[in-house]
Amino acid sequence: xxxxxxxRAAFRIARRDAARAKGRSAxxxxxxxxxxxxVTAADLTYRSxxxxxxxxxxxxxxxxxxxxxxxxxxxxxLQQMPDGVNWGTPDGAPDPTPEQQAKPVDVPAAFPEGxxxxxxxxxxxxxxxxxxxxxxxxxxxxxxxxxLRGRIELTDGAYPRAENEIAATEEFAxxxxxxxxxxxxxxxxxxxxxxxGTVELPADLRADALYALPGAVIAPWxxxxxxxxxxxxxxxTDPDWLVEGPPAGVTWQDVLAANEKGVVVTSxxxxxxxxxxxxxxxxxxxxxxxxGDAELTAAALTVAAMAVLEIVLLxxxxxxxxxxxxxxxxxxxxxxxxSRGQVRAVVLAGGAVLGGVGAVAGVATxxxxxxxxxPLIEDFTGxxxxxxxxxxxxxxxxxxxxxxxxVLAALAPAIVAGRQSVLExxxxxxxxxxxxxxxxxxxxxxxxxxxAVAVYGGVNGSTNxxxxxxxxxxxxxxxxxxVIVGFLGRLGRRLPLTPRIALRDAARNRxxxxxxxxxVMAAVAGSVAxxxxxxxxxxxxxxxxxxxxxxxxxxxxxxxxxxxAELPRxxxxxxxxxxxxxxxxxxxxxxxxxxxxxxYEEENGCGTLEFVKPTGExxxxxxxxxxxxxxxLRISADEHKRLxxxxxxxxxxxxxxxxxxxxxxxxxxxxxxxxxxVKLDDPAAAKALAEGVPVLLNPAYAKNGxxxxxxxxxxxxxxxxxxxxxxxxxxxxxxxxKVYVAPDRYAATPGIxxxxxxxxxxRLGLHVEDYGxxxxxxxxxxxxxxxxxxxxxxxxxxxxxxMTENEMPQTDDDTILLILALFAGVVTLGAAAITTGLxxxxxxxxxxxxxxxxxxxxxxxxxxxxxxxxxxxTGVLLGTAAGLVPAVALRLxxxxxxxxxxxxxPMESAYTPIVMPWETIGLLALVVPVLAGLLAAGLTSxxxxxxRRAG
Length: 951
Known about the structure:
about 950 residues; 31 helices; 23 strands; single chain; about 50% helix; alpha+beta
């Protein structure tokens, strides 16, 4: 018997039914196409953005065949790997002597015969901009040469052709405000160049650099520095040679010959077609590299399985809608002699038809959107795609996955439709089925086991156990959802009519409510897991970040000692160009004896000033010195954090010195510094400074409200002025000073341990000098303001420098959290909409009865809104709880690693917080369910056409 005619009829019925119910069909296609679209776009973007080896070489070499470089070891024999990255001296070879290293290497002698080459050198420089002054890198390279195509491309203007011309990357031109035709002056030698064009590096769109011809910058700069000792010479890199070899290219034999002369080579031909290990002398010295393909494959399969589950949960209720609305048609199939298998075939064929359409639409749309947004994707990744890389088998697999998912989504509705009697289908009545009693028990056991496995894996550092336990726990929650939905019906006894009906309807029809709740839960769980881990990791990085200054402040410091006479002009330069707010706070530096900033060459040739730190509890850091490792083995991460943040350990952890203080970290200042930099708002502290009492920011140095200062008053014979005032022998003084002790939290103030009034310093026989100022900023300065301020300081004599906060490296965490929230929100809205549609299909008779007994027309609309709200809110809350399991388990894994590092080095941080992403959770738990309910209510018609109930 040939089964194809039956299936052909099933597909014909399914195709006509899909065309007849266009809205439902579009919904199912969209639910299947959206994940397929996302996976297709992600695959194309990943494959295109991930450079191939050939593209990496083009980004490094352009169209050249190889790069030849000297190593700084002199002309001695080397060994290298084919990639040109790893190299070294032969095993057992003696280390080169300084004389050998100083010998020049004749790199061009290592080129294959008939080669053409370009030289490349770079030098850091400070240049003028339209806004002021900026630091950048200037590369001497003939970028107009065809050998550079693929590595450097012209975007506007022309390449430099003369020695007084220069080109800039688009990133630098935008930040500096320069346009083609503007002059750029290299500060120091004061060499001027005309900007002729802008370029981009396809492999690094964020590159910030200038390009000039060889010999146009470094040689004139060096010549100027040789004639003027006040000009610093250029700190140029060693030259590299880009080589275009003979037609055969630069072979492995050419590389080995160059190694004999002390030259390392990166050859395109060798890197793309490496020789066997037997021909690579260095191969025996290299160990095996880690291969993570197996773990990557397992992760990819896990993600794919969860994606299929998500689509099945989303699209399954939609097919149930179709099956319910087509039950009379399915009943007619049965009444005409169709078997239960043929009824199931009609529903499965609907899944195949819509799954196929969704797969094709998703793949096609994925291609189109990737091509459309390619420039934005390239800007985000920071590199141009060499080409849109398509892996046919991967794309075909994605499409097949969409098709199979459609069939799987229709499987459960097909089984239900096949079990329904012909009479029930023709009359519209539904039989009563008891839900499985075993499923919730299995789900509860799986939930408990999954949580236990995930936590065990986190404590023992096994990410595989964490992943497996998390999936098992989520599947356990899925099994418990019918019971949870049934429990919701009992919560509506005291609620108004429509929410009570919505809750009871959800509990009574668990077959359609549970999959939608599960779909929402699965999407929200993944989003919450990633968001929680990301937020926690961001909090850990923020804790580990050590600022060089108090946030929201800037500091102007004298560049050299004795330059205080120029500070007024420098202060004006900052105040006119920086976004300062309020009055500045001037500071000074203090020292004993001759100034070590000047007389540092001789041993014991200058004075010293230091604290005598008390010993004992509260003064000595228990994590440093004897017994520290034994203590680290006994304490928890929280106890370690408390000790690390204590004043006694603060200076052991943060040893940065600034503001001209040295290791004592004492600055001279007044009460204005408390408000502008220290952020200590205490009238008692300000009063103490006014009365000549120092303010100590680190209580660990005080005992009974006093500190001990030890000063060695040593005067250098070259310090004629001070030596004449202090002709005697060197002396040492120890003074007890009454101080105002600030609260413990101020021990972390960057760069300052104590603020001493000027009069107190002079009374102790110390020397004081005006050194700079602190400013409070009302916002971060822009690139233009930074450049303008540095230019103004240059005009003021360049005798002071500007310090700003070293901000944390910028990440895309906020963008990631927003994308996750949007993804989960869209899935929640879609699942709620599907359930609402199914509810309307099931509840037509109930709504007719309500209208018949006089219910207001708005009941229909509000009922849809509450049905949608129930599904969305229940799924979000369950998903939030489920998502915390993998996030917490993974953070436990991180905690285990951090504790191991801390016990090896007790001064290493073990802080591993778990931070809830409340913004993401709030958006999902409050905004999205309410929005879903309002949309469902708004899009539901309140008018109802009364029909005769069957039966």
